[in-house]
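Risk register update: the risk of archive-format incompatibility is retired. Evidence:
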Amino acid sequence: MRESVRVSEIPLLPTATNESGLGRLPMVTPSHAWRILFRRTGVECGRATFYRWITCGKVYSIRLGGRIYIPWPELESVIKKCRGGEKL
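Archived output:
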């Protein structure tokens, strides 16, 4: 059973301006992104592995102070790659 997660269900998301400077991108924390990735793809990726992907740049992230955030469109592209069988 595929569980969908709506952006509005994720609590208190900060936003960042996209590359063109127009509009806002909702962002999620790595722990939320990791859970969403598992729910939407069924990929059994460990938490440490997901954080390693962030650290080495396989998953784009933004650091604001001491916190890390992943833009929602980036998470959707990672989900799409996992569903398509591509390696990150």
